[in-house]
Specification:
This protein has helices at 2-27, 29-32, 36-45, 49-58, 64-91, 98-121, 125-134, 138-167. The protein is mainly α and 168 residues long.
Length: 168
């Protein structure tokens, strides 16, 4: 279970990093660094801005892509359980008041983040797995990327269908 959750985290991290890089590349953000005044300033400072930006997203320990992946993977169980709870409310029990609904939402959030902390972030387990997954062959990565996409979409589908069922 721990390795599976780390695989999902790894592929969310890689997808976010690659998507961000391509957005910056094709929307012209990188071209801003090639303007004459920007080149002069970066040359004066002595660093490559594209490399700095790449480091800001790519670093698995404190990079922005890693932070986003950790948040998303941490929210997935909460989204799934909240969707199931909405089905429960629709079909079995009506909520008594908003406060009880809020307490349940907060409880699911705490359980979700504890679950993710134990499987991913305790003693930085995910960093060990990231190094291991980088060495895997492309075929393995493609297979697990599709599985990770399904794991990510499933809680959102459950939540959206529960909202749709509650609206009827």
């Amino acid at each position: 279970m721990e390795q599976f959750w780390n695989i999902v985290h790894y592929f969310v991290y890689m997808a976010d990093y690659k998507l961000t890089f391509y957005i910056y590349k094709y929307t012209g953000v990188f071209k801003l660094f090639n303007l004459p005044f920007a080149k002069k300033r970066f040359k004066k400072k002595g660093y490559d801005p594209i490399k700095k930006l790449d480091d800001a997203f790519k670093r698995p320990d404190i990079g922005l892509s890693s932070i986003f992946a950790g948040i998303l993977v941490g929210l997935l169980p909460m989204i799934f359980f909240f969707g199931l709870h909405c089905f429960y409310i629709k079909n079995i029990a009506k909520p008594k008041n908003f406060e009880s609904f809020l307490v349940i939402f907060i409880s699911y959030s705490i359980i979700s983040f504890l679950f993710s902390y134990i499987l991913l972030f305790h003693k930085d387990k995910y960093l060990k797995y990231f190094k291991e997954f980088d060495k895997k062959p492309r075929k393995w990565k493609v297979k697990w990327a599709w599985i990770s996409l399904g794991v990510i979409l499933f809680p959102f589908i459950v939540l959206a269908s529960s909202f749709w069922a509650m609206a009827e």
